[in-house]
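Review session, final week

We close the course with one last complete record, chosen because it touches almost every idea we covered. It is F-box plant protein, a protein from Medicago truncatula with 263 residues. Go through it on your own first, then we will talk.
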Amino acid sequence: MNNFSRLDPDIIQTYILPRLDGAALMALSCVCSDLRHLICNNEELWRNICTSMWPCLLHPTVSHIITTFPGGYRSFFSDAFPSIHHYNQSHCLYRPINKLIHAIDISLHGEPKPLFTKIRVQPMNKFTIYSNGKIFLRDYSSLETQIPVKKERWDRTEYLHENLRLSWVVIDTIQNRAAGLFHSSCKPLWVNQMLTKIEVGYSTMMLGQKWQVNVTCRWKGGGDRLYVRIVVFGIEHMTGELGRQAGINLVNAIQNGERIIFD
């Protein structure tokens, strides 16, 4: 293991590996077979990395599904962490499934607790597979998650544009695959301040369609505490029309999309 050969494997696993992020561990596992064994076979290490990056994975439904992945949390990370790119619009390439799991986290940069975390099961039948992919989430429990934000009214828009983060992972429970549609590093494309709320929008392009998430935030306590009220996910054509067969495109992207490590 080169310089690592002088260290006890227990020291490496206890004091070195837990200090690294997932991307660094993936790179380090390619150095030599001994390191690959220490890293790839440490399920607890990968579970901690995944649940810290995606808090919604602590939900029992999702944690059980991930245990069925061939490499557990390591396989999930390899699928969900890279940016996904897919260009083939053929509807014959995907393998039929009966449902998708959407795992959503919304947080403020630097805050340990997410503003909003949600698991949504999307049935994939003849109605949803050809739909426009619209998903509407309203979370009344998010009222309990109010994070203090000491900002004047005119500073709130810029603050949320720089700090509000969205993570959206979709899981194929049959093929044991996952895809990160939006990553916690992406910033909003737009933020609109209204009288009693703020609308925040995220968007990405795939298969000639715009995949968009709109987040509605509200302020409490005289405007010094922020919480998430409504989240809407939808797919549109570049022409502005609702994206037809969005379910097919989503499944196709999960199963056949190219994973690219982003900066």
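Two points worth writing down before the exam:
Residues 43-53 form the longest helix (11 residues).
DSSP finds eight helices and twelve strands in the chain.
Good luck, everyone.
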